[in-house]
Amino acid sequence: MSAGLSDTVLLELSVMPALTIHEAAATTGWSPRMLRYVEQLGLVAAPRSAGGYRLYGPAQLARLRSLRTLLDTHDLELGDVGVVLRLRREPELAAALDAWFSAGTVAPSGVTATAAGDAADLPDQDWLAFEQVKHQQLLTSDRQDTA
């Protein structure tokens, strides 16, 4: 039985040497700086050579291409995807954000909100006081929850 064309392509892919960061940048359209940032965010991990250089194989290149498609399709930035990854890895961060979003815009005592109760309509000084008290209350409740 002879090897078909697809077998040859798979064989070539499996023995494809890993690319350096500059070669991967040229191949994917990402700059070397952006590839480092992608790795810093934890989105794509590039193994290192014995000399400490990042090496990008077929799996990393495919992941980078799919990341680019994800960003373009959903109008996202790398930082957006990085935050979602952190939320998956850090349950306490997810809980803190949930608490912040659910806190709403309740005016603390001593700060007068408009009839609608919207902090965005407060004068600048009142808004600053409002935000400071709100964040202090959230921090205090978070400390009490963990104690």
From TrEMBL:
InterPro entries tied to this protein: DNA-bd_dom_put_sf (IPR009061), MerR-type_HTH_dom (IPR000551), MerR_fam (IPR047057)
PROSITE patterns xref list: HTH_MERR_2 (PS50937)
Name of the protein described by the UniProt record: Transcriptional regulator, MerR family
Pfam families cross-referenced by the UniProt entry: MerR_1 (PF13411)
Domain HTH merR-type: 18-87
DNA-binding is among the record's keywords: yes
Keyword DNA-binding in annotation: yes
Gene Ontology molecular function: DNA binding; DNA-binding transcription factor activity
Record's keyword terms, sorted: DNA-binding
Lineage: superkingdom: Bacteria
Position of the signal peptide: none
UniProt xrefs under SMART domains: HTH_MERR (SM00422)
